[in-house]
UniProtKB/TrEMBL annotation, chain A:
Species of the source: Streptomyces mutomycini
Pfam name, any one: Ald_Xan_dh_C
Domain (Aldehyde oxidase/xanthine dehydrogenase a/b hammerhead) ranges: 30-154
Keywords carried by this UniProt record: Molybdenum, Oxidoreductase
Name of this chain's protein: Xanthine dehydrogenase family protein molybdopterin-binding subunit
TrEMBL record, chain B:
Highest taxon listed in the record's lineage: Bacteria
Stretches assigned to the 2Fe-2S ferredoxin-type domain: 23-99
InterPro entries listed in its UniProt record: 2Fe-2S-bd, 2Fe-2S-bd_dom_sf, 2Fe-2S_ferredoxin-like_sf, 2Fe-2S_ferredoxin-type, 2Fe2S_fd_BS, Beta-grasp_dom_sf, Diverse_Oxidoreductases
UniProt keyword Oxidoreductase present: yes
UniProt keyword list: 2Fe-2S, Iron, Iron-sulfur, Metal-binding, Oxidoreductase
Pfam families attached to this UniProt entry: Fer2 (PF00111), Fer2_2 (PF01799)
Name of the featured protein: (2Fe-2S)-binding protein
Amino acid sequence: MSHDSYPQPHGDGSWIGRSVPRVEDDRLLRGNGRYVDDIALPGAVEAAFLRSPHAHARIDSVDVSAALAAPGVVAVWTGDDVADLPAMLNKEELRTPPGLAELLDPVVRMTPMPLLAADKVLYVGQPVAVVFAENRYLAEDALELVDVRYSPLAVLVDPELSLTPDAPLLHEELPDNTAVTVATRVGDPDTAFANAHAVVSERFEAHRYVASPIETRAISAQVDPYSGRLTIWSGTQTPHRLRDAIAHTLGLGPAAVHVIAADVGGGFGQKGILYVEELIVPHAARRIGRPVLWREDRNENLTSSSHAREQIHRIELAADSEGLIIAIRDRITVNFGAYNMTGLVVPYNSLCHLLGPYRIPNVDIDVVGVLTSTTFATPYRGAGRPETVFAMERAMDRLAAELGIEPEKLRARNLVGPDAMPYATGLVDRSGRPQTYDSGDYPELLRRAVAKADVQGVRARQRAGARNGKYVGIGFAMYIEATGLGPFETARIDIAPSGRVRLAIGAPSQGQGHRTSMAQIAADAIGVPFDVIDVVGGDTEATPFGVGTIASRALVNAGNATHRAGRLVREKIVEAAARRLGVEADGLGLSDGVVASKEPGGPSIGLAELAGRAPLPGTPEPADGRYGTEISETVHFRPPGFAVSSGAHAAVVEVDAHTGGIEILHYVVVHDAGNIVNPMIAEGQVTGGIAQGIGGALYEEMVYGPDGQPRTGTYMDYLVPTSSEIPDLDMEETFTPSPMNDLGVKGLGEGGAIAPQAVLAGAVEDALRPFGVVVRRGPLSPSRVRDLIRTAGRT
Amino acid sequence: MTPSVPTPLAARTPPLAEPSAWHEISLTVNGRPVTAQVESRLLLSDFLRDRLGLTGTHVGCEHGVCGACTVLVDDEPVRTCLILAVQCRGTEIRTVEGLAPGDAPLTSVQQAFHECHGMQCGFCTPGFVLTTTALTEQSDRPDGEQVADALSGHLCRCTGYRNIRRAVCQALGERFGE
């Protein structure tokens, strides 16, 4: 794609809908990005954390004397040194929405995390001590001199073992190792199962894998000697929450803490939660009296930053003789790891996305979140949806096999139709409201995916038999995604005296291109050229409130806040121009940054002239008493409900039965995210999500030994796909605008990552049908595929 | 690209109390001569970032897999996390900052990554751009396998690679003809 092939402006000249090239790129391409580790803070000390080598152990003693005496060491802290600070809780994520609490009465048990472990450690990688030194080399030298004595305790890696009555307690203040339970029932599932024509009953596992942004986590903190405030640079996806957490932990007012999320090298959810390092570093900056910088290394990121995805589904589908699904039952076990960091977020996402695009009248779902001796698990791109879609779509394939129906036909038979929209599932959504799919055309998604994937061609090749031990197969998977999670996002627009427009939004960017897409929205809403708009995201001084860029919410929330603020600012500009020009506002129009009379030859005024009026010496007091800087507007957009995105993926694979190798021959995606602001950026988001999904489906797994030791702590063992592993995608969109917001947009940051595990598992299973293989778990590495072939028919 | 009278890049004073041995090295970075005292164990990545302030070289894994820290050492892509500064004595190094210094127009490789949307968060981008630059500087057009091989030395977690491949294709097309 080059400039020439970018879509031309719409007939109405709007910026929305155009693949406007990104304004972010020039700076980043010149090496002028400002990621946390790039921001020089003169006199900074660097932190390095000593992490637990045990998965579960009592700490008997810690001796830091040798470390303190090491060259360049400024301070060494242990749990005792931060015992005066409150333990960490991700408060916002752990909150149960009132509607949900009332209707489902879920159990959410808090497990506050000490900033540095003092009594015992609960996973390999838990921070036990921290060294502050003149640089990272010296800090790591000193880490080796910290002497910690541990008494190992019983380790629980398997969540099902963690749930057994005689399992050792990981958090002694809790009655058992359960962190979360929630259940829902709709209709009469027991009767439906009893009367079913066919029932499939399976156990599927979503395996553990991780976000792995190429920039690891980092934070720096400095007490500004002039203002006395703490300035924090962080790669966080949720700067306002971080500000509030730091202020709370350190006993400061929020105004005393300024958090800036500058350039962030990918987040994918891993940077959307609060970590203890983010509280220790600001504390150290105050206590040591020098700026403090911490940047994670890759081993720390893989083993100690949040993990994700590990779930077990004991799922059952009941169908009538026509292949209509009449009931679903699922017992979902979510491995939370050592701490309950984000409560219901992942379990409930799995619960309320299980039905997906399908009409199922009788529902019985139980979810339990279980504590184990592994690194804590939190939302990662998809956040409970890829796991639940894996289980549901695998079950659909098993049901199709049971009924002898083609998998795509079984799916088509059970879809919610477009005429049923808005469609109420009978469940409760994540905000505690009746779950409603606002819009979408699922049959059309599937029709297009089926047409592109050439099912008949694949079946013909299968009938012709394998060639050289290579088997072809096709798989399908569909999903819906409730996007645009509230509670709100903020946009503030100011017209600068120069006539430039400053847009500040609460949501920071980790590569999503907000400076471009949000400026497109603002340009249309206000009536100014795109290139006069400067976008600031994720700076707590620029917007007093904000939530962040998580949960496929930024475009829906910050985008619509921007749109509304832009419309209001437009009105203010026109009114100010009317006063200045001494005409009626009705007679004026605003376009391209100029307010002009609708009558030909009438008066006009540009933004700079309007906003640049200053109380300079020698200038008369304005007749209306107003100066230019008063053109400003702040809007907090509160979504009334979820904007539901959807998609259908299909994949054709070739499996080498000798080597277990898998080649993706054709990957089809048809997705719907309502109106699209910047097609180029949207396509990039979906493509990137699918690449992460393919990684999870075929290559990536965070493996633990039974001793609780992570075995994939480097990129030599944890296999992030390269360009060679990710094929070109065959992509199409449908556009069903969301009625939930003015722009008609839906979120799409996560969607791509939701279906690949399911679709590739289905395709491999289809290819290996001659062997009777059933895929119940990923990743589909060559050795696992060989195991499947070897053991097929024996299970 | 290079200033007509090269001015040395000033290296910041090294931190106090380094325990290992010290060496004086002289090399050329982005066309400018540099002389600095470095300790034995100082990685080239940290030398470029912390001593020369060239933070466009990003450190992603520190064990030679992700390729984000790639620079050109004597025109060859090298992972700066796997080489010590002291090993680079007498070499000519190019970092991303040297491709289009100041307000100079982006190189055709940089421009291709922009036009093809071959970047999102931008963290891995300097590495990809420098490896692609090296491909365009070969005397013969690299074949598909060589291109794939070169790209497989870099991880990108955002783009899904498709647009990166397009960008590389465009840049090679401009250099060697379609």
